[in-house]
Amino acid sequence: MVRNVKKSGPYRFVSEQILTNGDIEVLSTAMAQSGCKGNGRLSGRATMTRVTLKSSVKAVVKPYCRGGIVRYLVKRHYFRWRKLRSEGEYDMLKYVRALGVNVPKPMAYAFQGSLFYKAWLITKEIDSPQSLFDLSLKNEPDLPDLLGSLACQVALLIEHKIRHIDLHPGNVLVDRSGKVYLVDFDKAGVYRGSRSGLAKRYIARWNRAVRKYNLPNRLQTDFSVRLNKSTGTHK
Q1: pTM higher than 0.70 for the full model?
Q2: Does one domain contain both 225 and 163?
Q3: Do 27 and 110 meet the contact criterion of CB atoms below 8 Å apart?
Q4: I need a labelling partner for 232 at 20 to 30 A (CA). Which of 50, 124, 143, 202 fits?
Q5: What average pLDDT does range 67-86 have in this prediction?
Q6: Is residue 74 located within the same domain as residue 140?
Q7: pLDDT on residue 40
Q8: DSSP letters of 116-161?
């Protein structure tokens, strides 16, 4: 599909759908106010901003924030080389949605600057989302079913050799109806190794987060068993 580019002040918006001037005004305000203050509970570094567009669509604005030691020197700017960070995640969300993976609908990506830039991603908001991190602390009775749904989603990624580099309970959202979504596909890409090797990486990353944040042990055992069953792999 043709991508439309709109400029508003210092920002450029790229989208396959039509964003009205009113929508862009709302998004520009949210982007100007966005920051990088994660809460330390598997929520990532960026502070997501939820907005209601003039078209009445509820959306989420995600800023891209530096990690590692470099964040103490440069918090928000990136050097432009090949794709923008926001463009890469936008494209990946479109791709995995086409494969049948439940992810937020990408609406647009935006950036400010040229050689050095800031970036944002705009997605459609999930209905009344709760993270699997929070649900696990509430000892939800539906947790086994949710982990089963999650395993099926991750199995789809493994089948198509897509590596989500930061899979953990904070990046799994559940909507009002109990549908499971995967979020944060920043820097996700094609895995060059075997599918069984990719499954092991997913399980290792997941278990490391569960242990680090002292989450219920069933998150480790149930997810590992269900993912191995869904993919036909073994520990």
Answers
A1: yes
A2: yes
A3: yes
A4: 143
A5: 72
A6: no
A7: 57
A8: EEEEEEEEEPPSS-EEHHHHHHTT-TTHHHHHHHHHHHHHHHHHTT
Task: For residue 114, give the amino acid letter.
Answer: S
Helix (H, G, I), strand (E, B) or coil at 215: coil
The answer to whether 19 touches 27, Cβ cutoff 8 Å, is yes
Cα–Cα dist 183/189, whole Å = 14
Place of tokens 């759908």: 17
Backbone angles phi, psi at 23, to 5 degrees: -60, -45
Handedness of CA 206, 164, 137, 225 (dihedral sign): negative
| Nearest by Cα to 117 from 59, 63, 73 | 63
Assign 77 to helix, strand or coil. Answer: coil
β-strand 116-124 against 58-63: which pairing, if any? antiparallel
* Residue that is written with structure tokens 């309970």 in the block: 169
C-alpha–C-alpha distance, residues 83 and 121, integer Å: 13
Residues 14 and 119 in one domain: yes
